[in-house]
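Second opinion, please. Pick holes in both lines of this record:
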Amino acid sequence: MRATTDDEIEAAFETIARQRIAALSVAAAPFFDTRRDKLVALAARYAVPAMYQFREFVEAGGLVSYGTNVADGYRLAGIYTGQVLKGANPADLPIIEATKFEFVINMKTAKTLGLDVPLGLSAAADELIE
């Protein structure tokens, strides 16, 4: 499904419900990041298990997230900035990729959705939100 406006998000969830789609993975996109509360609320309203890219979605009531740690990304950006401010040529700095990923499960949301989280999956999580 595609959604590039708030109305399209609403329509997408209506389609998900009508077609009885079993789960949803929300794409990593700044547009969706700015609509976190709306997406989490619609997933709850339509009882759709959803996976997101950032833990903040799960903290807001989403089911699961797997993605980079935002704070770690800002820390890396700060290191780069510090090197440039100390005189390093940005073109000479190595490319740094995210290496810290986190898997977060909201157990309360899982229970609300009637989902049993397998022990192996919960054991693999970096954090369980009760």
In short: The mean pLDDT is 94. Residues 34 and 57 are 11 Å apart (CA to CA). The helical segments are 6-18, 30-33, 36-45, 55-59, 70-85, 107-112, 119-124. The longest helix spans residues 70-85.
